[in-house]
Specification:
- There is one protein chain.
- The chain has helices at about 1-20, 90, 110-125, 125-130, 155, 160-170, 190-210.
- The protein is an all-alpha fold.
- The chain has a domain at about 85-210: Cytochrome c-like domain (Cytochrome Bc1 Complex, Chain D, domain 2, Orthogonal Bundle), CATH 1.10.760.10.
Length: about 220
């Protein structure tokens, strides 16, 4: 009988030692019998990781992966690509004859909302290198990047909207060594957001190099002209 009492007492003490009294507070971490996957390593972007062979925390996208809603630039769009793209103009910046678009696609409405979205995306992805004004004086200049161009030179002002869209999509032209000063942003910006950035870049250009002839005649009175 004593053994039963002793065993019961021992079990009660053990239970209270492990679980404690209901409602009491403790500064000790709780006892986890089955932690499952509650505690995992949290890796920071572009950090190192000893787990992977290449030592990188960021994992590359598996080959031949196509994100839903994005179409490869070199792919000729067809009827089977309805989920990926509706037309070459919106997704590639090209007209039906293969030339670069000189005006925005019909599905893109250039208004204050689009410009606001373009400014937001531009500030995040473009301004660090190209500067808030698009003059190439971004913060990266302070860290040794000396080749960031301005949007206001004659050649870039003459670029069509389709060419600007393509540059955002695939990056800048490669150097003789095969390197690109600007990498593609198609994986970061949807086609609609890329057009928004193009619209904002055009606004920055007009603000710096615009002429009176750029203003429609019926709006010149608003400028006091």
């Amino acid at each position: 009988m004593r053994h039963v009492y002793f065993a019961t007492f021992f079990l009660a003490v053990l239970t209270l030692s492990v679980l404690g009294f209901r409602g009491t507070r403790s500064t000790r971490p709780p006892l986890e019998l089955f932690p499952d996957m509650d505690h995992q390593a949290h890796l920071k972007p572009q950090a190192e990781s000893a787990f992977f062979v290449d030592g990188r925390a960021d994992r590359p996208i598996p080959p031949y992966t196509v994100a839903y809603g994005f179409a490869p630039v070199e792919h000729k769009l067809g009827e089977d690509d309805a989920n990926l793209a509706a037309n070459d103009g919106l997704y590639r910046g090209k007209a039906a004859d293969g030339s670069w678009l000189k005006t925005f696609p019909a599905s893109v409405t250039v208004d204050a909302k689009l410009l606001a979205r373009g400014q937001d995306r531009f500030t995040i992805y473009c301004a660090p290198c190209h500067g808030a004004l698009g003059d190439g004086q971004g913060i990266t200049k302070q860290y040794g990047m000396t080749t960031t161009p301005t949007y206001f030179d004659e050649r870039r002002v003459k670029l069509t909207v389709g060419e600007l869209f393509n540059t955002i999509t695939v990056g800048s032209l490669p150097t003789p060594e095969g390197k690109r000063n600007m990498l593609p942003y198609a994986d970061k910006l949807s086609p609609e957001d890329r057009w928004a950035v193009v619209a904002y870049v055009r606004a920055l250009q007009r603000a710096q190099v615009g002429k009176l002839t750029d203003v429609p005649a019926d709006h010149r009175k608003e400028l006091g002209l």
